[in-house]
Amino acid sequence: MSASTSTETVKTDVLIIGAGAAGLRASIELAEHGVxxxxxxxxxxxxxxxxxxxxxINASLGSLDPEDxxxxxxxxxxxxxxxxxxxxxxxxxxxxxxxxxxxLDAWGMDFNRTDDGKINQRYFGAQSxxxxxxxxxxxxxxxxxxxxxxxxxxxxxxxxxxxxxDLVVEDGRAVGxxxxxxxxxxxxxFDADAVIIAAGxxxxxxxxxxxxxxxxxxxxxxxxxRAGVPLRDMEFVQFHPTGKVRPExxxxxxVTEAVxxxxxxxxxxxGERFMERYSPNQMELDARDVVARAIEQEVREGRGTEDxxxxxxxSHRDDAYIHERLPRMVEEFAEHGVxxxKEPMEVAPTAHYAMGGIEVSFETGQTEVDxxxxxxxxxxxxxxxxxxxxxxxxxxxxxxxxxGQHIAETLHTRPSxxxxxxxxxxxxxxxxxxxxxxxxxxxxxxxxxxxxxMWEHAGILRNEDSLLTGLQQLxxxxxxxxxxxxxxxRTTLRYENAQNVRCMLTTAETILRGxxxxxxxxxxxxxxxxxxxxPAWQQNIRCIPTGDGRMQVxxxxxxTPSASVQRxxxxxxxxxxxxxx
Length: 581
Description:
Layout: E1 8-17, H1 21-32, E2 37-40, E3 57-58, H2 70-80, H3 87-106, E4 121-122, E5 132-133, H4 139-153, E6 158-159, E7 162-170, E8 173-181, E9 187-197, H5 219-226, E10 231-232, E11 237-244, H6 258-261, E12 265-267, H7 275-278, H8 288-300, E13 310-313, H9 319-325, H10 327-334, E14 345-354, E15 357-359, E16 372-374, E17 379-380, H11 391-410, H12 421-436, H13 443-457, H14 464-480, H15 493-517, E18 539-545, E19 551-557, H16 563-570
Parallel strand pairs: 1-2, 1-9, 2-6, 9-16, 15-17
Antiparallel strand pairs: 3-5, 4-5, 7-8, 8-9, 10-15, 10-18, 11-14, 12-13, 13-14, 18-19
Helix pairs in contact: 1-4, 1-11, 2-3, 2-16, 3-11, 5-15, 13-14, 13-15, 14-15
């Protein structure tokens, strides 16, 4: 492969890496303040991973349960996060969620309505009241359509099929980024006064995942880490209880929590409604980590299906109700010969959401690197040790707005630093070297090895021996990745996968090291050798880049909630599951 001979350079005030809900909401806020910005996406515009979020979006509107209030939403979020959340982030989220939902409603998002015209709300796991707003079971898609249309109305510019490989940092300040146009196959440099990372999570590091195979490969986290930003609480990866088992090419794809929120019941292969053993009060609507571990235990003890799954049944509900509330699930399973109004769905846990990620100050979205911001699933702090279902979508719009507003109000105070050509040439040289590399290891084979070792050694249940084995195997993959067989130009999937491997290796190591450090079980992090939650571990684990490609681990105490939220916690609100019976 020949070296790149020309580089396109693009100038913008604010560069937004990621075209999902978080990036779009930030762009809308910037555009409404008259700030020039540019949104970049790896895929066609509007085809972000947000569209896969199905069940709903949380806000304490009180449409059905008027006693709900934002402090109880915060209490539920902290309880679900096992009190290692960023308390400031949680309170901002829950206070501002109702305003952001009403804003979406005003922008035309077609929420389901109650008989008296209010935005309807459904039960979701581990929530004390019905506060999950929804558009059938396609809420994420409806959200994206609404945000894309609003951005179009404001003439927000975007570039699609654009992969960012490195941030450009000069004198401790983010001044742009370098990537490549996946259609043209040419390198592109972006000169910006501020950069927002909004590029999603990293659940595609696991063999079974609710992500598309080429999405959520840890790009955002690796970009920030290489730029000098700590990653926090990376050991907390949520395994959703209900992913598809069949067909094979859809294994792990999400069966929305809305199925259980509307009364779906879980049975093992022996016909037992097994959640009675694990959570007799909250049953199928207990926290996601609880339900996922229960399914895993049933399978390990020999009560799973032939495909190591269990059965999720909604057929006791009225057919018309199922079609109204779960139209996408009806359609998807029908395509494979399963009528969910008459028979159960086969499901198993799947890697679904990353609670850990880039460390930010949530009041501004700012990272430790000046001029570099992050928002959405790529950040850490809102969800603690386990995410409350329905909080992911509202996080994107709340903190997209907060970050966009802060940048708009402060951008004029920041010096404009020219994009350093020497630094750009260094990053493009790395691209060229990767495109030309030849060796015995294909990117696809390396990705498979990473996903397998992460599933087997850092999955739902973990222990020290397994995590150490996983880390040793990852180190071998890191060594083999230096002899990758690419020999392809930038328009090919082979080259894209080679870049994905770069990101996956960095992000996977932070997960393994964080999981080894945390010698307890808390939320989504379950250690069989330390099965109890340890009060001394109400702390956050930070993986800090040392500047030489390595990392060191640091620990700091988790912060505490405000007095009003603590009162809500002390009130001990809890869902009465039997309302659904």
